[in-house]
Amino acid sequence: MSISSYISTHRTKKPYKSWLKDGVNNGPNSMDILIGWLTVKENYVMWRGDSTDRTPKKLLLQDIIVKLNQAGIYHRVPKDVASKMSTLQSNYRIARRWYETEGRSLLQKGVQEAAVHNELLKRFPYWDALHSVFNPSKQEPITTNATTTTTTTTTTWPMSIHYILHSADDGLISSPETDHEEEYVKHPDHSSQPWYQTSFAKNVSNCAPVESTVPAPVPSRQRGVSCVNTQLGRDARRKKRSQEMFDFILEKRIERDRVLLEKEKTRRIRAKADLVKNMATAGFSRDEITFQLQLL
Q1: What 3-state DSSP class applies to 284?
Q2: Which of 45, 129, 226, 234 is 20 to 30 Å apart from 51, CA to CA?
Q3: What is the tens place of the pLDDT at every residue in 54-111?
């Protein structure tokens, strides 16, 4: 067997191992270890890196890898852990947004708190464990209580993908993982109005009306005519460019043919001159040379 055939035969894609099903000897799986690490407040504080002497994320990720290895899990690498952290953060924010809009609306309509909480867990099963961790310190904690006020989202989120990838001391390239089973269900926010608009709706209603500077909507017929005119203009410009390209190619072809014709004429003149020279050297008369030239 050749080396190339051996390599092609043994080159197989690394099999995916679920974060929920890779526990060894009924021990904790990768997700259990990651959630457990995040729920330790000291770990999360170091991960956020708010202080000036923050710990490099490479070291924090390596600490998680060590804990995975201690549980008999050796197939995870730091970039997998960073990607999974970003996924957890993204799903938490989706669940949080759902609660701040649809969840509160359901509570105000009299839906039981337990039912709303169950819907919240469907969107992010680790809500109870990670809400107090992922919730920034400047925000009020969310509870399933209809009288709780809407919280304000801060602009800095230390668990974001951008924060992980662009840390000064972090050289990791996080690549999202594709899970073969749904570890948590992602539900888009179908609320017709963002939560921050809902929270200020009463204040806005009390304000004096402001004259709108937005132009009036264009009638559909006028929009159709405008689209047709735009398309006709594009077609005309495209046709003009095509004609210019055709003329350019034709001009170049004519120039090439002229050059080839001049080269052929030069070649024939040189051939006749060589013939006259060779015949004169061989002793042919002028009449014989003229006769041979007429045959060419």
Answers
A1: coil
A2: 129
A3: 778 889 999 999 999 999 999 999 999 999 988 998 999 999 999 999 999 999 999 9
Distances (CA, A) of 65 to 81, 84, 163, 261, 268: 8, 13, 20, 76, 83
Angle at which helices 286-295 and 220-282 cross, to 10°: 160
∠40-43-44 over CA atoms, to 5°? 90
pLDDT in tens, 227-238: 778 888 888 888
CA 178 to chain centre: 14
CA–CA dist 65, 67 (Å, integer)? 5
The residue among 144, 143, 149, 142 whose CA lies nearest residue 111 is 144
| Residues 6 or more apart whose Cβ sits within 8 Å of residue 152 | 138, 139, 196
Alpha-carbon gap, residue 231 to 93, rounded angstroms: 43
Residue 210 burial (C-beta neighbours within 10 Å; 0-12, 13-18, 19+) = exposed
